[in-house]
Amino acid sequence: MADVSDLEEQLALVDSEMDALEVQMQELLERQQQLQEKKRQLNKKIEKLSGNNEGGSSGIPRVSAEDWNKKGFSWSPKVDEVLKSVFNLQNFRSLQLQAINVTMAGKDIFLIMPTGGGKSLCYELPAVCSTGFTLVICPLISLMEDQLMVLEQLGIPSAMLNSNSTKEHVKWVHDEMLNKSSKLKLLYVTPEKIAKSKVFMSKLEKAYHAGCLTRIAVDEVHCCSQWGHDFRPDYKSLGILKRQFPNTPLIGLTATATNSILEDVKKILCVPKCLMLTASFNRPNLFYEIRQKPSNFEACVEDMVRIINGRYKGKSGIIYCLSQKDTEQLTISLQNLGISAGCYHANMEATAKSKVHKDWTLNKIKVVVATVAFGMGIDKADVRFVLHQTLSKSMENYYQESGRAGRDDLKADCILYYGFMDIFRQSTMVVMENVGQQKLYEMVAYCQDLKRCRRAQIAQYFDEVWDSTKCNKMCDNCNNDISDEKVDVTSFCADLIKILKQAEQLSEKLTPLKLIEAWNGKGPSKLRVASVRPPNLSRNEMEELIVHLLLEQYLKEDLSFTAFATISYLKVAPKANLLSNTKHVISMRMKVRNNKLGSSTEEVPEKVKSAQQNETGSKRKQTSTADKVTPSKKSKAVKDIPLILD
Fold this sequence. Notes:
Elements lengths: L1 H48 L15 H4 L7 H10 L10 H9 L4 E4 L8 H9 L3 E5 L3 H14 L3 E4 L5 H11 L8 E4 L1 H6 L1 H12 L3 E7 L19 H6 L5 E5 L4 H10 L6 E4 L7 E7 L4 H14 L5 E5 L3 H13 L4 E4 L5 H12 L5 E4 L12 E6 L6 H8 L9 E7 L1 H11 L5 H13 L5 H8 L14 H4 L4 E5 L1 H16 L6 H8 L19 H13 L3 E7 L4 E7 L14 E5 L55
Parallel strand pairs: 1-6, 1-7, 2-4, 2-5, 3-4, 5-6, 8-13, 9-11, 9-12, 10-11, 12-13
Antiparallel strand pairs: 14-17, 15-16
Helix pairs in contact: 3-5, 4-5, 16-17, 17-22
Organism: Scyliorhinus torazame
Main location: nucleus
Family: Belongs to the helicase family. RecQ subfamily.
């Protein structure tokens, strides 16, 4: 018996030493991450100072824009003539001429250009200037329809093939592909057509050997990578195009891809030595704003309607929602309040979606309320606002969706309504994606940051060096001057961990809302830990702190799958073991308030809204009493609520 006790004592010592090692490992990993980030920033500064700032790491070959920014090529006169006579444009935007020259020279190229930068012209104009046709792979039918509407107005012969195409139309297209005298210039297909239609691939091969397949354009090329934000399995099959048609130049286009994603895409598409042109991510005419989401649906609708009826009266816009149900509910609410709105989501009939798209394009309706199905490449120049009723699932998605505003280079607003529970709704949606949760948390960190320039944050994400002084107060953080302070929240973290460990011992699972209830001393008495007092924090501060601990990996999500839903619970993460070291401190930045955090259990009085949160007191003063909702006769009256709700 004594031997057993001795062994148990040794086992306890081993466990204790392992715990201590785990704490040290966590601290070393944190330091490693800090050094890696510092190294990356230093490399960026060196690259910028050395003048090699074409964007990105040295591992990806880049093209000097100056090498192709000229009009002395054999095709230049025709390119100039077509630009003016067909596309009704007088000048090229940044990098358009360079990209057109590269693809006209028969070279493979990737073009990374911000949403609204004019990527489509870089393969449409060369298609008109070349014999044969250009094959364009697009991820969405709505995108193809949008492109075809524009091309039809310009008088450029084009066609598309998709699951809704009639047999007669398919036969006509197949015949045109093999006809050397055909006027067909652009043929749009989905990646599924390449991956699954042997008949179509056979026709393409015949067109290639007949000299009719002039160019391949892969739009939204980031969809190839399973590490990207919009991975499409059938995009991975597109490598067959360069294997089967090696002499046909390929142009890949995207607005949202990091360097690591582009490296992966090059391998997938079999173009390891393709040239690359990268434009700056910056859209100087867009104002980026994160707005605290009201606590209930009706208040959020009222806020949207008030600003739409004010600064956006009679203007075009898009509102993005998370789910089909959300789009339908919001559309009805907007219509009841006198807003000319249409609904768009993937489960609608094709004809209904097309009607909404066309009506919006022709200004018959002013607002499209949509899921991401109203997606990539939507091209309407005069979109004055893009609102996100919920959190985007990644920075790439947000940048692309918000970038549909202001393509006419006039000022436009990009407003995202950020709410605590939206994080966990999105988590259940991205759980099956390779890096879905990582990308979601990066988006959450962007929303949580109340100090850094929004453009600087976006630039850092897309591996670009950016001087935040160039923002010109065109984001909420640069336009406002919110006072915040670094706060020690170690004791709060310890309290939350005690509650979660107590729940685990009782075989209970806590959702984020249940955790807040238990922290406030509410809910089941068995979850009330004696040493934990309700914190002296507002509800918003409690939510911000939980999110901070989640992002810093002291807490983690535990997703539970049922036949009807996926539920997000919170658990203690391994990094919480660091708290066993009494010297370990957890801090976060919080808005300044008069009373100190944790000083009492009294209810915190409602904080006074700061001047920068009230648009009537900001430099961007655009609202007046006209911003109040003016309901139609059938609508009920709506209260005038603050623009930003705490």
